[in-house]
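--- STAGE predict ---
source: upstream dedup step, 1 unique chain passed
mode: sequence only
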Amino acid sequence: MALKKLKYIEIEEDFKLIGIHSQLEGYKLAFNLNKFLRISLKNFDYRVTINKVDCVFEVFKHHSETFNTKIYLFSNKSFGNNQSFGKNLFNAIDSKVYLIEEKKSVDFFLKVEGGGFNYDSLLNKIQSIPMVQSCYLVNLKSQKSKYNLIFE
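--- STAGE serialize ---
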């Protein structure tokens, strides 16, 4: 039986992506977003293999059936566990892996699916959170980065 791989599948862009620069830990940022935006982000781990490195990214999810929206807060950086194949002093080497490679300077992303949000107001509310340096709408150019944003 032959296996076929699909190289490119067109992903519909029915979401907006907000880049957040902050020195806060993920759970503290999620707590503040819950407070300022009046949502309920809940934690779950997202495991993915990028370039043969197993990574765990911190992801928080909010789902509102009333407004038909899903909001994800996720970290862009993970310290993956790269298993070495040769003889080495260490069995595993930690390496920094980015979920969205083309935006390495962004600490967190907020992915908003559905809903009719006023994004200027949303950005102003996020910017008013203490310890958030900046936030802005992000436009992804790479299809590969968009594949990493499929959480379910």
